[in-house]
Amino acid sequence: MAVRPIRLFGDPVLRRRADEVVDFDRELRQLVTDLTDTMLDAGGSGIAAPQVGVGLRVFTWVVEGEFGHIVNPTVELVGDEESFEREGCLSIPGLPFDCRRHLRVVTTGFTVDGEPLRVEGAGKLSVVVQHETDHLDGILFVDRLDEATRALAEAAIREAEWSRGMVPEIRASPHAPLRPTG
């Protein structure tokens, strides 16, 4: 078991776009194993390589007992249905907030061995895939919060014991915001 330290909010690696994986080798297989071990040890549903300080486009997940990983993912948002639920992040420990996401996604990429992979997800899997893909683009889930909730998140992060009083830099997501329906 190789559990790596998880980078916390404020670490610059979390704000950089990760590089495409070009070598599907033993090091990549070890990274995927380490990501899975770290995710399970921390009790998460997903983890992206930047969260352990590695600037590569790969993440792992476990949703409803199903494990997976994807390398160099591309996400297609399917339909207009949305979810609005509590979302948290291993890099922002103990601070979940309500976040709006698309209900369905189709993700394409590769396995750790370089084989093409397509994952269709709805509900929790859709949220995890969107969350982890955001990490690969330097986006944190708090960037996707509405303005009022973002202000609450900033205050909570500032007060969190692990933040040591840092002034958080929460950005508005560069992606088109999801709008409440109904």
From TrEMBL:
Active site residues according to the UniProt entry? E132
Q: Under which EC number(s) is this enzyme classified?
A: 3.5.1.88
Q: Keywords on this record?
A: Hydrolase, Iron, Metal-binding, Protein biosynthesis
Catalytic activities: N-terminal N-formyl-L-methionyl-[peptide] + H2O = N-terminal L-methionyl-[peptide] + formate
Q: Which domain of life is it from?
A: Bacteria
Cofactor: how bound: Binds 1 Fe(2+) ion.
Q: Which GO terms describe its molecular function?
A: peptide deformylase activity
Q: Which family does it belong to?
A: Belongs to the polypeptide deformylase family.
Q: What protein name is recorded for this chain?
A: Peptide deformylase
Q: What is the lineage of its organism?
A: Bacteria, Bacillati, Actinomycetota, Actinomycetes, Micrococcales
